[in-house]
Design brief:
The chain is an alpha+beta fold. The chain has helices at residues 8-14, 26-36, 46-83, 97-108, 142-145, 149-153, 177-183, 223-228, 234-240, 260-271, 280-283, 285-323, 325-333, 338-369, 371-382, 389-392, 403-429, 433-437; strands spanning 88-91, 113-128, 131-140, 155-158, 172-176, 190-195, 200-201, 204-205, 208-218, 229-233, 249-254, 276-279. The protein has 2 domains: 8-77 and 289-437, no CATH class; 93-274, no CATH class. It contains 18 helices and 12 strands. It has a 6-stranded mixed beta barrel. Strands 7-8 form a two-stranded antiparallel sheet. α3 (46-83) crosses α14 (338-369). It is elongated and about 110 Å long.
């Protein structure tokens, strides 16, 4: 008489019984780690596991480093653009000096406003002998100019002390270094400015011409500013552009430039609804839009790379399921549920994805932190300048780490690993023990 073999006692002794084992319990985690570390001779897929791990790690590393460098470029560029102009601009043309002073006082009373600067702005032709080029003249008071750290720290020649009108009534200008190079100027040289609309005559407006001395040359770190901006004392700009005692605009600097829309609403409530306001985003709309689109498209493309790298886990798990078919069949005959088998192989894929994502994130953070020494080492080894300051106006590659963005990339990589592992894991859970052990 044949003796029947009872499966229930074996299931209880092994802890694989679905009724007694908790999901993702000890024995499921033990099996997942054992399969992950199994050698090829034992039916494991060590090489495929390493390839999957490296694929996810490199993809996450590249995504975080690329996004951090793009964030650094964006912050550096915007900080330099915001450093030479107001965050919010109020148009006050045609108003008297008393009205402008009242409006400026009201603006200073708005919460979040740091500084308010009256400004005269006009276009002029800068000429030195046969050389001539267009210039954007900014008439600003000396005290207000000293509130612009980009200009204050960017003086290459001369000093802000020379930005004033002397006893003889001659004004000294501050000019961007690219514009000065185009005209062949240095500190102490003279430049003639020609305004298109000067004094009124019976035949129309005659151009106004006047020669000024260069008091200082600055480098703002933005090519457009260096190639066009000329700062002139406010009182002289009022005379040169025939503004009387009026100004063209109030440039308002705020604590949080990203909240410019809310600040404009508060300013309009205090200064009057008839004023026209614009912010730095509107002034640089094409640049801001280009940065946003480029950042979003680059993030989407690199996330696809991360997803493709996570798909490598599928091939490794398919081979693992095939090699471990006998073990799965034995576990099923001992009482392991389909869900337990699915969770074991799901954990294998999740461990590969999570470990690769975390290692890639850690390497990316270290790379961004030490990007300066890494750049210096590359330049020393290759004997080339990796990042040309004359082209990019920056001495090193900027990188700005955003913790939420890093966490999002890691979470996305782990989610892709789960999805990639789900299909092979479901195949393993549906394996028929009879068919798997038929020829064993």
């Amino acid at each position: 008489m044949r003796r029947s073999i009872g499966c229930a006692p074996m299931a209880n002794s092994s802890g694989a019984n679905s009724s007694g084992a908790k999901p993702f319990g000890l024995y499921e985690r033990m099996l997942a780690l054992r399969y992950l570390g199994a050698k090829r001779a034992q039916g494991g897929v060590g090489a495929m596991a390493v390839i999957s791990f490296l694929g996810v790690m490199i993809a996450v590393f590249v995504l975080i480093v690329t996004m951090s460098i793009m964030n650094g470029f964006r912050e550096t560029l915007l900080s330099r653009i915001l450093g030479v102009g107001g965050h919010v601009i109020a148009d006050v043309r045609g108003r008297t000096l008393e009205e402008v002073n009242v409006l400026a006082k009201a603006a200073r009373g708005v919460d979040g406003v740091l500084h308010v600067s009256p400004l005269v702005q006009g276009q002029a032709l800068a000429t030195v002998g046969p050389n001539a080029t267009g210039a954007l003249v900014q008439g600003i008071a000396k005290g207000d100019l000293q509130q612009l750290p980009i200009i204050l720290k960017g003086i290459k020649q001369g000093s802000l002390d020379d930005f004033d009108t002397d006893e003889d009534g001659a004004a000294r200008l501050i000019m961007g270094f690219v514009l000065a190079q185009q005209l062949g100027l240095t500190v102490g040289d003279g430049v003639t400015l020609v305004a298109p609309q000067g004094a009124a005559t019976p035949f129309g407006y005659a151009p106004r011409r006047k020669t000024y001395q260069i008091g200082a040359v600055f480098d703002a770190g933005v090519y457009e500013v260096n190639a066009a901006f000329v700062y002139m004392p406010l009182d002289e700009a009022q005379r040169f552009f025939a503004r009387g005692d009026g100004v063209d605009r109030l440039e308002i600097r705020i604590k949080e430039p990203d909240r410019s829309v809310q600040i404009i609403e508060a300013l309009r409530a205090r200064m009057g609804a008839d004023l026209y306001f614009s912010d730095w985003k509107a002034q640089n709309q094409s640049l801001v839009t280009a940065l946003i689109v480029e950042r979003n498209v680059m993030r989407m493309i690199l996330m696809l790379v991360v997803a493709i790298a996570a798909m490598n886990i599928i091939s490794g798990l398919v081979m693992l399921v095939k090699n471990k078919a006998r073990d799965v069949a034995i576990l099923r005959t001992m009482g392991a549920s389909r869900g337990a088998i699915l969770r074991v192989f799901l954990m294998v894929g999740a461990i590969l994805g999570a470990s690769g994502a975390l290692m890639g994130a850690a390497l990316a953070v270290l790379f961004c932190i030490f990007i300066g020494p890494i750049q210096a080492a590359l330049e020393f080894v290759t004997r080339t300048q990796v990042f040309d300051a004359s082209v990019y106006s920056l001495s090193r590659v900027p990188a700005s780490l955003e913790p939420l963005e890093i966490a999002g990339v890691v979470a996305f990589a782990i989610a892709m690993a789960f999805i990639a592992a789900l299909l092979p894991a479901r195949g393993a859970s549906k394996l028929d023990p009879v068919e798997a052990l038929r020829y064993e």
